[in-house]
Amino acid sequence: MHLAILVTNTDLSDFAHRHPFDAEKFETMVHSVRPDWTCTAFRVHLDEFPPSLAPFDGIIITGSPASVHDTDPWVGRLLEVIRNTTLPLFGACYGHQAIALALGGTVGDNPHGWSLGLKRSDVVDPQPWMAGLGGSYRQFAAHKEQVTALPDGAQTITSADGVPCAGFVMGRRVYTTQNHPEISPAFFEALLAEFGPSFGADVAAAAKASMTGQDDNLAYAESIAAFFEQAVKGERYTR
């Protein structure tokens, strides 16, 4: 399996340079469950797009502090890629929102403000590739926008406190999460230490208090791999 990772994270701060960039985070996530798969990353936020999608079996779209409503040219180009591709798509956070917006849904402000911390998502419509997740799972969240209406043909599969659509599917070809399956506890702790004040004292304190127990990143990574396997096995794609 060869996946294209479309990196949308616009953070190029000193903090970002002290930690693995998203391309490495997502590749590590994939290799935690499928070490023989190949991942090729493209920094689409710097207008580095794949010259062709022909070599790839699927696409991962990462998270970002950017908004899907931004007018930067790369955002519009990414939405066009989403609309035009026939490859299976997985999106996390920004990727989740971008897929929804590109395919006819809407994205708006979270009325509760920032969702930040180790958050539980409840599985409301389990898909076959999600068998290992059980009825709920925990991932790190860091967002203040969310999907407010789904595209035609999409269905919500997970919900969270204050986030009615924490993930959706479109048939067997689209799978998303509003959260961050690639973020480790160590990275999130560093993120809070660096940027906590910018979220607000109460939000940062609640996020820090949420970091008890275990995330379900490994089980969720397995669900992503199983999603791509069933999509590629079950469909023929025109490239």
TrEMBL record:
Keywords: Ligase. The keyword rRNA processing does not apply. One of its GO terms (cellular component) is cytosol. Gene3D superfamilies: 3.40.50.880. InterPro entries: ChyE-like, Class_I_gatase-like, GATASE. Its EC number is 6.3.5.2. GO terms for molecular function: GMP synthase (glutamine-hydrolyzing) activity. It is an enzyme of class 6 (ligase). Residues 53-186 form the Glutamine amidotransferase domain. PANTHER family: GLUTAMINE AMIDOTRANSFERASE YLR126C-RELATED (PTHR42695:SF5). This is GMP synthase [glutamine-hydrolyzing]. It comes from Pseudooctadecabacter jejudonensis.
